[in-house]
Write a structure and sequence with these properties.
Blueprint (H helix, E strand, L loop, with lengths): L3 E19 L5 E21 L4 E3 L12 H14 L11 E7 L10 H16 L6 H9 L5 H6 L3 E4 L4 E4 L6 E5 L7 H6 L12 H7 L9 H7 L1 H10 L5 E3 L6 E5 L2 H11 L5 E5 L5 H6 L2
Parallel strand pairs: 3-4
Antiparallel strand pairs: 1-2, 2-4, 2-5, 5-6, 7-9, 7-10, 8-9
The structure holds 4-diphosphocytidyl-2-C-methyl-D-erythritol 2-phosphate and adenosine-5'-diphosphate.
Length: 291
């Protein structure tokens, strides 16, 4: 058994996002198209036999025990160590490291993706043999976006993002920019002016409509409350259609040509942190794990 894995934790974009209702617990019912893209954090998971879970590379602004990587590892350890019907057993541990490239809290799902990579990677490193369904169920306790990274495929999502159906999307080039402001997800969802009554549509309708009909219901409120997002969006929209991902703050513009994307990215890069990414239909994580 290999004692160490180095694995990617890719970003996602919400190509469209409709808010179709609000549950009694305050969470919102969404309809969204998730697409994984080819920019990633890099994680290394190394087996240790003393049962400890340690993140050896601190992430700025996140306490060790709150880090989604540590929480994912401990959740898996607890759950596998006390599986129903099995004799409780001593579990191995792991040392985790991360090379963080994705911005935090920007709507690219980096934290959720880190957690998914830890769950899938440790499932293999610890030889637990848990199914993707079991891992996605565990992951959902950590964040609404974890399951899509566990399944590792473009997906139509409903509920709070956990009811997933695999789809195949176009794979354009994206210029992603971070407007250098942090958007609070809870504040956006609490905003009295947020559109939360979009009419539910079918997945077929969403796919038929294509990118020209896709929108993000959070976009108007995020633009209104965060002028820096509005400014960046208006700038990028000169070059190509632009959308907010998740609750932001990151924005993405869609291009058919890599060269045009790189030219616009060079201009954007003079003002904002900028990435060029290709849309994917399968995750590089599943490729690395040989799933
Ligand atoms: C809306 C999305 C779309 O991808 O936005 P991004 O976070 O990616 O920007 C996500 O599903 C977000 O998922 P995640 O960031 O994990 O959110 P959570 O930590 O579960 O929730 C943060 C807070 O946002 C609100 N919330 C979140 C998701 C949801 N469907 N309805 C909500 O009302 C709740 O107030 C919750 O306490
Ligand atoms: N390993 C991690 N990477 C990123 N964020 C993390 C991590 N662990 C905990 N967090 C927390 O989760 C929040 C959401 O992070 P992230 O998933 O990157 O953003 P978003 O949900 O907007 O796409 C961060 O603001 C941070 O406080």
């Amino acid at each position: 058994m290999s004692a160490s894995f180095t694995l990617p934790a890719p970003a996602k974009l919400n190509r469209m996002l409709h808010i179709v209702g609000r549950r009694d617990d305050g969470y919102h019912e969404l309809q969204t198209l998730f697409q994984i893209v080819d920019i990633s954090d890099q994680l290394t998971l190394t087996l240790r036999d003393d049962g400890d879970i340690t993140l050896a590379t601190p992430v700025n602004g996140v306490a060790h025990d709150d880090n989604l990587m540590v929480r994912a590892a401990r959740l898996l350890q607890r759950s596998a160590g006390t599986a129903q019907g099995a004799i409780p057993r001593a579990m191995p541990g792991a040392t985790l490291t991360i090379e963080k490239k994705l911005p935090m809290g920007g709507g690219l799902g980096g934290g959720s993706s880190n957690a998914a990579t830890v769950l899938l990677g440790l499932n293999k490193l610890w030889q637990l043999g848990l199914s993707a369904t079991a891992l996605a169920k565990l992951g959902l306790q950590l964040g609404a976006d974890v399951p899509v990274f566990i399944y590792g495929h473009s997906a139509w999502a409903e509920g709070i993002g956990e009811k997933l159906t695999s789809v195949t999307l176009d794979t354009p080039w994206f210029v992603i920019i971070h407007p250098k402001v942090s958007v609070s997800t809870p504040l956006i969802f609490q905003d009295p002016e947020l559109t939360r009554d979009s009419r539910p549509i079918t997945m077929a309708r969403a796919l038929q409509g294509g990118a020209s009909e896709w929108r993000n219901d959070c976009e108007a409120i995020v633009k209104k409350r965060y002028p820096l997002v509005a400014e960046a969006l208006d700038w990028l929209a000169q070059y190509a259609p632009v959308r907010l991902t998740g609750t932001g703050a990151c924005l993405f513009a869609t291009f058919e040509s890599e060269q045009t994307a790189r030219t616009v990215a060079e201009l954007a890069g003079q003002r904002w942190p900028t990435w060029v990414a290709r849309g994917l239909n399968t995750s590089p994580l599943q490729d690395a794990l040989g799933c």
